[in-house]
Amino acid sequence: MKVLGIESTAHTLGIGVVDENEIHCNVKSMFEPDEGGIHPREASEHHYQKALQIINEVDQKTEFELSEIDAVAFSQGPGIQQCLEIGAVIARTLALKYNAELIGVNHCLAHISIGTRTTEAENPTTLYVSGGNTQIVEFRSGRYRVIGETLDTALGNALDKLARKLGYPHPGGPEIEKLAEKTDEIIETTYPIKGMDLSYSGLVTDMERKVGDEKDEIVANTFQEYAYSAAVEALERAMAQSQSSEALLTGGVAMNTRLREMVAKMCEERGAKAYFPPPEYCMDNGAMIAHQGLIQARAGDRTEIEDSQVDPNWRPDEVKVSWI
Ligand code: AMP
Ligand code: MG
Q1: What does each of the 324 residues of the chain score in pLDDT, given as a tens digit?
Q2: Cα 170 to averaged position of ligand 1 atoms, centre (Å)
Q3: 108 CA distance to ligand 2 centroid (A)?
Q4: CA of 61 to the centre of ligand 2 (A)
Q5: Does ligand 1 have an atom closer than 6 angstroms to the CB of 173?
Q6: 37 CB near ligand 1 (under 6 Å)
Q7: Separation of CA 269 and ligand 1 centre (Å)
Q8: For a substitution probing ligand 1, which of 114, 130, 170, 179 has the most ligand atoms within 8 Å of its CB?
Q9: Ligand 1 pocket member 13 (CB < 6 A)
Q10: Which of 1, 31, 40, 224 has the highest Cβ tally under 10 A?
């Protein structure tokens, strides 16, 4: 089966094509605001403007004709409504044009399934950390379960916000990482864990208040050490509870070297394995949506046009899993 997948939940418009054997292409364009965070209208305008160019590039890079596509998958949620809608319109249009099945997929589950496709992980406990989401997810007894999650802001968003305060443009995660590498020093602040859940907004506010009084690199390093330790602690507790022997780290923040180091060390100490997908598949991308569409299409999942409206708040634990 050949599946084309469209990702448009937030800053990235991505289109990928996969089949059972190969990821044929994975083209994307990321919206980068001149200042501030991601404005829904500006991001969706970017997706609208770039759509044709990306489709043409996908057409050129794919060895077969796009008319041979069996299914068109798209991120149906969760995400920014205006951005999701652009992806859904492109998906409906291409599905009708190529006489292909339409499949709306959950963006969070796509991050997990591309993680298992591109690594040796089989049924991992996943720490999914991105701009808009921070969750610890496991597949148990027929459903994906959210074992822990952020109660307020997502980890990526928290990094971006602190970076803005320090004077860096979006995305700020890599800038915080570079700053933090310059020091081992940390200062005392709030530890952002609440039971199995995380809460990053207080930590961001406290670090924002320290900007100017403390060196930028100490602020950045403190944020990283506290934020990542709490996430890895929740991940470890989830693994202990379910006796999981595999951890998967995914989402844009999974590119962070310090976070990877902490996950790897925790797994080593528990005798578990840590898996890190290639960076291209950690960030939002179309290939992961195509792959999620492929496994669902094989199980007979379809989305009728009249059921294809987007859902900005669609949780992974609400998804009916028919394909495992
Ligand atoms: P996503 O929403 O999955 O595409 O991920 C985007 C988020 O990943 C943004 O908040 C970025 O700041 C963050 N990010 C990207 N690279 C890094 C990095 N090296 N360290 C920390 N965060 C990062
Ligand atoms: Mg994502």
Answers
A1: 999 999 999 999 999 999 999 999 999 999 999 888 899 999 999 999 999 999 999 999 999 999 999 999 999 999 999 999 999 999 999 999 999 999 999 999 999 999 999 999 999 999 999 999 999 999 999 999 999 999 999 999 999 999 999 999 999 999 999 999 999 999 999 999 999 999 999 999 999 999 999 999 999 999 999 999 999 999 999 999 999 999 999 999 999 999 999 999 999 999 999 999 999 999 999 999 999 999 999 999 999 999 999 999 999 999 999 999
A2: 9
A3: 7
A4: 24
A5: yes
A6: no
A7: 26
A8: 130
A9: no
A10: 224
**283: nearest Cα among 16, 18, 2:** 16
The neighbourhood of ligand 2, an ion, using CB within 5 A, equals 130, 284
Residue 129 CB less than 6 A away from ligand 1: no
**Cβ-based burial of 237 (10 A; exposed 0-12, middle 13-18, buried ≥19):** middle
